[in-house]
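Project outcomes to date are best conveyed with an example. Our students and postdoctoral researchers have been running inverse folding experiments weekly, and each run begins with a structure described purely in tokens. The record below, which covers 180 residues, was selected by the lab manager from last quarter's runs and is presented without edits.
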């Protein structure tokens, strides 16, 4: 396990095979997955071959509570194909028990700052369903601003998808202007 980043309350570290049970639980919580796949359950093997394999790639980190070591979920700054060097997509998925405690904002802000100051990131984007007010609030608290509403074909029809998705973004220059 390699620690990538620490905040006052979080440790972000590489994802390993040992995270499988926690990722299975996360991906099988209907409330967590509501805006991802409508809350459809996933088998352990689906999670191992899909979510866990993806999380073990560059740009993803498991999040733990710094004080207790409790597994909270994951964060990402995933490079976007076709967008040019230095453009990444911010992502986060936290256990329901971690919701409403500021972890998503704290972890996201720290990742964005590290990305701009140390990793050569030029632009951070983030997307969610238009109806996902909680995730939109996190993006706004992190300094990202609304860019557009868009419509795509998704493999799973999710309630609210008819309203489309939204993109938020912040550039390195905008971030540094507001964060010294």
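After processing, the design step wrote out the following sequence:
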């Amino acid at each position: 396990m390699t620690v990538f980043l620490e905040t006052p309350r979080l440790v972000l570290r590489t994802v390993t095979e040992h995270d499988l049970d926690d990722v299975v639980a996360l991906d099988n919580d209907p409330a967590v997955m509501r805006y991802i796949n409508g809350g459809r359950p996933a088998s352990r093997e689906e999670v191992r071959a899909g979510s866990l394999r993806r999380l073990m790639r560059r740009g993803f980190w498991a999040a733990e509570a710094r004080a207790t070591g409790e597994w909270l979920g994951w964060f990402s700054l995933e490079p976007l194909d076709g967008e040019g060097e230095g453009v990444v997509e911010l992502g986060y998925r936290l256990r329901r028990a971690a919701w409403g405690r500021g972890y998503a904002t704290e972890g996201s802000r720290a990742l964005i700052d590290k990305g701009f100051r140390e990793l050569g990131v030029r632009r951070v984007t983030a997307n969610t369903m238009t109806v996902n007010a909680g995730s939109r609030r996190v993006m706004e608290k992190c300094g990202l601003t609304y860019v557009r509403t868009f419509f795509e074909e998704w493999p799973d029809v999710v309630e609210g998808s008819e309203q489309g998705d939204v993109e938020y973004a912040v550039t390195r220059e905008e971030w540094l202007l507001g964060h010294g």
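The domain at 3-179 is CATH 3.40.630.30 (Aminopeptidase). DSSP finds six helices and eight strands in the chain. The training component of this project remains on track.
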